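R.M. (postdoc): so does anyone remember the format we settled on? I'll just put the structure tokens first.
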């Protein structure tokens, strides 16, 4: 049996409740569309937000790791350039030693020796500038995680003392002694070339490793960003459809509320007459 009341308008209360719910949905949809994010507040998806934040942290670490690797590459390239120049200087020392080792040399071995000593000084200077005067480890933090997150290795020293050529001489008390000294220097310089080649191999290996690490880091950033996006970002097509739906429901709700309020006033007509 129908009931008519001016005290409690149940239809109006229901319309207000539905209108409030639809307004919340419309506001949420508009917030997502304007921000581009599906999760704007913790209440939107608390568990998803925690996962998305973890991905975002990983991305920050990976991006810095890529910068670290590129900085490391720059440092290694400085060392590599110095090694190439030192190799050229050793070639010049070998030329001078070979010249002095000849019995038929008629020039001044003192002049040759003076140039050799100047080259040795320059080798040590360049090794010091490039950070190669002493050996040691070289490592770069490049990735996330608690293990396997660094690329590194050892780089040997290339000072003249480390290569065993700091005390070579191209002169002697006699011509025969000078020739013997020069021949000994040639032997030491050959060993120095081998030692220098080993250091160049160490630097080259580190350069390649860092380049691979950069490529991997960039791939990880893309994939991790995609994983975060699937959780955090809004689906614009879906939210556009939701906006249309909630807009229509809000308009319908307002019309229904007006009708429900009008229905209560119609009860007064029973008192007329």
């Amino acid at each position: 049996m129908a009931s008519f009341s001016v005290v409690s308008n149940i239809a109006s209360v229901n319309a207000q409740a539905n209108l409030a719910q639809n307004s919340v949905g419309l506001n949420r949809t508009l917030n997502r569309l304007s921000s581009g994010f599906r999760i704007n507040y913790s209440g939107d998806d608390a568990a998803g937000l925690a996962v998305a934040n973890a991905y975002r942290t990983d991305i920050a670490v990976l991006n810095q790791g890529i910068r670290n690797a590129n900085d490391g590459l720059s440092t290694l390239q400085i060392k590599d350039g110095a090694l190439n120049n030192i190799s050229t200087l050793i070639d010049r020392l070998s030329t001078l030693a070979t010249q002095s080792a000849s019995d038929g040399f008629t020039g001044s071995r003192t002049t040759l020796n003076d140039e050799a000593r100047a080259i040795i000084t320059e080798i040590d200077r360049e090794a010091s500038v490039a950070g190669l005067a002493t050996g040691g480890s070289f490592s770069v933090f490049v990735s996330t995680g608690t293990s396997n997150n660094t690329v590194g290795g050892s780089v040997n020293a290339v000072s003249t003392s480390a290569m065993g050529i700091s005390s070579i001489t191209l002169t002697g008390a006699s011509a025969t002694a000078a020739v013997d000294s020069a021949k000994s220097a040639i032997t030491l310089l050959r060993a120095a070339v081998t030692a220098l080649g080993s250091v160049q191999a160490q630097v080259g290996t580190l350069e390649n490793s860092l380049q691979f690490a950069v490529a991997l880091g960039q791939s990880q950033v893309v994939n991790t960003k995609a994983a975060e996006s699937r959780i955090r970002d809004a689906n614009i097509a879906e939210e556009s459809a939701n906006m249309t739906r909630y807009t229509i429901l809000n308009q319908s709700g307002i019309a229904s509320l007006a009708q429900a309020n009008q229905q209560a006033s119609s009860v007064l007509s029973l008192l007329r007459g």
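R.M.: ...and that's the designed sequence above, right after the tokens. Also worth knowing: The chain has a mean pLDDT of 87. The chain has two domains: 10-36+235-271, 46-232.
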